[in-house]
Amino acid sequence: MTTFSVLALLLFLAMWAVGGKQGAIAFVSLGVNFALLFLTIVLVQFHLPPLPVTLVAGTIILAVTIFFGNDDDNSTTTAFYASVIVMLLLLLFIVPVEHWAQVAGFGDEDSEDLEGMSLYIGISFLKVEICTVVLSTLGAIAEAAMAISSGLSEIEMQQPTITGKRLFGDGLNVGKQIIGTTFNTLFFGFFGGFLSLFIWFVGLRYSIGEVFNDKVFVAELLMVLLSFIGVLITVPMTAAVASWRWHRQSQQSQKKPIVTKVDADE
Amino acid sequence: MNVKPKHSANWWVTLVCVLFGGLLVLGVAYDAPIYQRPIAKITNVRNERPVKQQDEFENQDATVHQRINAVLINTIHKGQKITLSNTYSRSGAMDQPYRVGNQVFISKLTRGQQSNIKGPKRDTVVALLTWIVISLLFIFMRSAGFMALLSVGLNAVLFFLAINIDLSLKNGNVFVIFSLISVAFAALTLWLVLGWSRQTVITLTATLSGTALAILISLIVFALTHERGMHYEGLQYVTTLPRPLFLAETLIGSLGAVMDESTDIVATLFELQAERPDVSRNQLFLSGRNVGRSIMGPLINVLFLIFVADTFPLTLLYLKNGNNWGYTYMMNMSMGVIQSLISGLGIVLAIPVASFVASRLMKKKVMTDDNL
Question: Distance between CA atoms of A148 and A76, rounded to whole angstroms?
Fold first, then answer.
């Protein structure tokens, strides 16, 4: 057996043992997300426009990450709406930033990997870079949206008379509690992957000026910063979506007092 | 209502900080004089007719040659007018078009020879985005934002120190060094987020044991499977032994996520115990597991998307160069996937570990409370 298959099997068993059925479904979500990522690349390879492909794939990835392995309908729906809106908003940031920064494609440090390859492939690496950034931030956005919406749905259950406005404020408060650890998840997640690049820089004595203008480094740093921005927008956005849905629900139940909460949801 | 004046004063401080930061960004846009390398600002660009390119894999592309006029904006030659040239392709894998107003680094001026463009100046966009992140942090998160920023900043400094230590030890093992540094990373971060309390110690214990357990299991799997199907040649930017480097990358990569999760679990259990002091150890353990299992899926996906999406451009290039899916996956994505699996193990194993450690160590305190 290969190392991959043994590790995958162990991860599945561990997730199943700890999370039961919910854990097993969460494991499946990893596989589905991988298939979606690979499919995106294949579709881009066949010259489909990268951005629309990524947005469709991104929406499905968000749905898979949020709905697989979570049972609470109310909080998952809120998190999904909020994270799709954040993805679109973040795109408005990413497109101009990537155009301006000119970090698409490969840098001098990649030369060895590119030896003997044809670089003129006829697909804009700028667009590919934009897709890469969008996809790499989705996990963090989904996770933050879930953390806030499940916190808020807990509050909704405990205080059924709470106003939408108060709920929004509570959402920001939950955001304050998670922001420190979320930033660290992203920081370590990204910087762990680029440890070798940093060893390269320090080993070859790049100056600070060289590092902060280096294509590969700036590309990576922008990814981290854009993920931070994504998470930061996610907090008020999820709070806003939750408070809007709560407001609408309470209005509907006022008009038709017999309607149960579940019906009002639809 | 007494709070209100203080509140608006806080807003003023935030506003002043944000505006001051904006000025700093503007400063970076005009910081060319502090660079030793010559920088030129492009004043005029003439594009020549596109030239069609076709490679052996029948990829269609086009290249455009640009004739560029520019003026030097730093060094002793400041103000001198120069001509430059550039060729860019439509795909732009290692080249890019330049436009009027771009600032570019150029090679040293030598008499009678044209300078080459080394690359665009990118520090302004970094400064701008950093400023946006910090501003948003202060506006939405107030003091919590400051702590988040501080922990990321201090970790970045530690990270840099660790790399320096690693390089100064000629025969040091990257993995061993970064394992030790990870303890410092985790302790520092949790201390900043939670303060110094029993809760911090429990969270730290859970984080370190969960991560260590995942790495240990992976090492055993590596040994048993003889690392079949692991392609270290697929790793990028490798200048030292690839195996310890890979392990160190995986360790650092998962540390933040495991900390995130342990913090959530332990915090919830402390809250639960405060509300219901009579809760049993067993119940605490089960509640911890409940908290953990709803967050583990999204957390593993966070790392998975970071590790795998990053390989997107190179994967595309491999496919476009006539490689089949299997070889392309093996060379580009397989190591990222294995990294995600190991991190995933860390994230999952931290759940029972955190629940167990918390339920045991917390109860001790309660018993002494009961005795009082």
Answer: 10
Q: Structurally, what CATH architecture does the domain formed by B169-371 represent?
A: Up-down Bundle (1.20)
Q: How would residue A264 be classed by pLDDT, with cut points 50, 70 and 90?
A: very low
* Spatial separation of the C-alpha atoms in residues B118 and B106, rounded to whole Å: 5
Say which residue the tokens 């209100």 belong to: B4
Query: Would you say the C-alpha torsion A233, A235, A238, A242 has a positive or negative sign?
Result: negative
Query: Does the distance separating the beta carbons of A202 and B253 come in below 8 Å?
Result: no
Distance from C-alpha of B90 to C-alpha of B64, rounded to nearest angstrom: 8
Structural domain boundaries in chain B: 33-120, 169-371
Integer CA distances (angstroms), B232 to A190, B74, B136, in order: 19, 44, 40
Task: Determine the distance from the C-alpha atom of residue A56 to the mean position of all C-alpha atoms in its chain, rounded to a whole number.
Answer: 14
Q: Min CA distance, B80 vs chain A (Å)? A: 23
Q: B76 phi and psi, to 5 degrees?
A: -70, -15
pLDDT tens column, A137-195: 999 999 999 999 999 998 988 888 888 899 999 999 999 889 988 999 999 999 888 88
**Angstrom distance (rounded) from CA A145 to CA B363:** 33
Question: B368 pLDDT exceeds 80?
Answer: no
What's the CA angle centered on A95, arms B30 and A188, to 5 degrees? Answer: 80
* DSSP codes joined into one string, B80-92: -EEEEEEEEESS-
Structure tokens at A177: 């509690």
> Could you tell me where the DSSP H helices lie in chain A?
3-45, 50-67, 73-101, 111-114, 125-158, 164-193, 195-203, 208-211, 215-255, 261-264
Query: From the CB of residue A79, how many other CB atoms can be counted at a distance below 10 Å?
Result: 33
Q: Does A18 touch chain B (CB under 8 A)?
A: yes
CA nearest A35 in B: which residue?
B308
pLDDT, tens digit (0-9, with 9 covering 90-100), for B16-58: 888 999 999 999 999 999 999 999 999 999 999 999 999 889 8
In chain A, residues 152-181 whose CB comes closer than 8 Å to chain B? 172, 175-177, 179-181
Residue A115, classified by CB atoms within 10 Å of its CB into exposed (0-12), middle (13-18) or buried (19+), is exposed
**Rounded CA separation A29/B296 (Å):** 12
Spatial distance between the Cα atoms of A242 and A230, rounded to a whole number of angstroms: 18
Q: Do B151 and A183 touch (CB under 8 A)?
A: yes
Number of domains, chain A: 1
Among the partner residues A11, A22, A41, nearest to B312 by beta-carbon distance: A41
A146: domain range?
3-264
Q: How far, in Å, CA of B248 to CA of B251, rounded?
A: 5
Pick from B11, B35, B355: which is nearest to B210 by CA? B355
Opening angle at CA A72, ends A232 and A234, nearest 5: 10
DSSP string, A121-154: -SS-HHHHHHHHHHHHHHHHHHHHHHHHHHHHHH
